[in-house]
Amino acid sequence: MTLSELLNYGKAARALYLSQPTLTFQIKSLEEAFGTKLFERNRQSVSLTEAGFAFRTYAQRVLDTVAEAKECLGEMHSRLHLRVSCGPVGQFVVLPAVIRALTANYPEFELEVCELTTEQQMERLTAGEVDALLMVPALPIPGMRFDPICEESLVAVLSRYSPLARRSAVSIYDLRNMGIIATSQKHCRFHQPFLHSLFAPFGITPRIVEAPQSCSVQHAYAAAGEGVAIATESMAACTFPDVVTLPFKEDLPKVELGLVSLAANVSPAMDIFRQIVLRQASVRARSKMLDVPGAYVRHASPAYVEREAS
């Protein structure tokens, strides 16, 4: 294109920061590739052949397409887009506030939420197919960055028709003969070992009732009286039909939850998302400190749910 405009090999070579023999070679290679001469050259002048005139239109289209492709890819790289997957607390408790904050402050932010099992979360985060995991424990992922957000006490989730549902708290010894709802090993290799380690100090081997990893499905199992689910305290703020959420009498280990990403995943979208998550988690923590004892209620009242959501 440069040579067709200047019609002078020396000037075109200088404009392209090439040597004249290099430019001559490239033009000759182009002509050989198409099997036709594009330029006529003699000692006095350079001119386009008929084929050269025809090809110039296509050459401009090629250059325009390349420029459009560069612009498109540049926009994709710089746009605010993030793919996340959430644990139960992230999905039901924190994510709504995060989405509201993103919508209010960054309306152009594209947040893609994927519902995955723990094993899928680990695999896809490592493969770069998911950018962040929200409100999950620190997982054994190479190159992981873990931003701790909170420590959560454990609670029992059981059917409101259970005799235990009338109590204000439950003992772990009350569960020795009950089924304990747990995620299948293929979906999460950590859940069942964690439950065994939780019961072991009390001399109890839990009777595991395997269920899908979905928190809603496990709560449905509990509501049906198929067993007791053990969840984190924030889940008491969620309303699930026919379930009761009760604290434990014993001082059980707390679960640390946070934001997981790869340390190498650095982008404006990731920075904004991290800031929003940490800010919303801080607001929620202050709100919980103001709650009076007895937050573990059989049916969370609308006022309680509204306060937690805000």
Helix coverage percent: 40-55%
- Strand arrangement within the widest β-sheet reads 4-3-5-12-6
**What fold name goes in the CATH topology slot of the largest domain?**
D-Maltodextrin-Binding Protein, domain 2
Number of structural domains: 3
* Oligomeric description of these chains: single chain
Task: Characterize the largest beta sheet: strand count, sense, and whether it forms a barrel.
Answer: 5 strands, mixed
Unreliable runs: 292-310
**Strand portion:** 15-25%
Choose one word for the global shape: rod-shaped
Order of helices and strands: HHHEEHEHEHEEEEHEHEEEHH
Summed up, what is this model?
The chain has ten helices and twelve strands.
Description of the molecule:
It is a single chain. The protein is α/β, with parallel strands linked by helices and 310 residues long. It folds into three domains: 2-77, Arc Repressor Mutant, subunit A (Orthogonal Bundle); 79-151 and 258-309, Periplasmic binding protein-like II (D-Maltodextrin-Binding Protein, domain 2, 3-Layer(aba) Sandwich), CATH 3.40.190; 154-253, D-Maltodextrin-Binding Protein, domain 2, CATH 3.40.190. It has helices at residues 2-6, 9-15, 20-34, 50-78, 88-105, 118-126, 191-199, 215-223, 268-289, 302-309, and strands spanning 39-41, 46-48, 81-86, 110-114, 132-136, 144-152, 154-159, 179-183, 207-211, 229-232, 243-247, 255-262. The strands form four sheets. Strands 4-3-5-12-6 form a five-stranded mixed β-sheet, with helices on both faces. Strands 10-7-11 form a three-stranded antiparallel β-sheet, with helices on one face. The protein is rod-shaped. Residues 292-310 have low confidence and may be disordered.
